[in-house]
């Protein structure tokens, strides 16, 4: 609590606070509450983003060498297998709706797509602009749990995403930052295969973020096994004392970031 109070005092004095999540128990809500804004909340995987933001904040505001990039393509994965809690499934729906509204309010250069999967993957909508966000939210909310009990094949779905979801013909852009946001009720039997697919996506510059809802320790543990870093897990609590979806704002820094070329040191030695 004292840390939050002191951080608030520093923000009021317009002191730029960078907050970086490292380790096995990253609280994204805490990182956001400490940072100057959501654009100053990072995970350590994006070291270049932190470095370039530091440069941008240290030089003349009129500098044109450091450019803010807001081009991002995001694919949402929703597990629809029958063998899951209906309450948790509806909570994931609510989280997806909240996320789409946050993206829409951001007014930046983002496209979002959604895939529902169990033993196979189906597009709910391919990468799309957010100018008709109400339709996208409606399409997302119409997705229901499978009627037939089959086992989810997340490994196959991630492979499908890498091959198809970000392709130019499906709305993908070569220069965009690519992110997969995964809402899953995980099965530990296939953790190794799933992690291999996440590694393959990472080699193609596609970052996979896990979103856990509620307090299901088994799912949290499974996410820990498959994600490349613990800071890539966002935890949406069902604690009614605070906004449970605030952790989604940490994605803002991943989707809006500076790039600076080497000439900045010639202009500002």
UniProtKB/TrEMBL annotation:
Q: Domain VWFA, which positions?
A: 73-255
Which InterPro entries does this one have?
ECM_Assembly_Org (IPR050525), VWF_A (IPR002035), vWFA_dom_sf (IPR036465)
Q: Which Pfam families match?
A: VWA
Query: Which chain positions lie within coiled-coil regions?
Result: none
**According to the lineage, what is the superkingdom?**
Eukaryota
What is the residue range of the signal peptide feature?
none
Q: What is this protein called?
A: VWFA domain-containing protein
State the species of origin: Mytilus galloprovincialis
Q: What is the lineage of its organism?
A: Eukaryota, Metazoa, Spiralia, Lophotrochozoa, Mollusca
